[in-house]
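Predict structure. Chain length: 235.
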Amino acid sequence: MAREGQEGLDMLRANDVQLIISDWMMPGMDGIEFCRKVREDQFTSHIPFILLTAKTDIDSKLHGLDCGADAYIEKPFSMGYLKATVRNLLELRRMLIQKFSKMPLVHLSSIAGNTVEQEFLLRMNQLIEENFANPELSVDFLAKEMCISRSRLFAKIKTLIDVTPNELIQIVRLKKAAALLLEQRYMVGEVAYMVGFNNPSYFSKCFQKQFGMKPFEFVTSHRNKQNTEGSGPVA
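Prediction complete.
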């Protein structure tokens, strides 16, 4: 617990935090400025933020949400309502993560809740894709290129996507493979090598484990879906 915004920022730099609940009115840096600084920092921009306040007019509500808060709760409030809001925010994050993880064509940036997160995830995805064939592609490589410490990178990815950086690298490989497979220009083995796998059989096994279907099943399913959508009723 922090007494005001600056102390809160100091605590965020020293601890892994999953969710922030902040009052609007605080000495020194108030909750609005605190929220803005949280959203502007790539290390903390992903953390769900709940703003508590006694201000109930519409302008104040808009001001509170404009700063980047995920939820705006008026005082007085019940503890049950606050707990429900926390659960809903964390569940929404879990659903976004699940959708990204299990659906082959959902891009990494879909998890982003704001511009800073989106830029971070797009850069991360680009780095991984550009270095599929690079034997140095690793957590340390990503941390160096993203100008972030290894421990910070691990914590941010784990909080954002609920995977380790190495697991994220593999998921990005598999998602790129899914996109290449749908081009129908390459054999499964060719795609495996293109995204950095040395063994096509192992690639197929990883693809099935991640997405619940083998590569050829994915292509067939997508083709059938397109044919079904394209064969609507004729007037």
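Summary: The chain has a mean pLDDT of 88.
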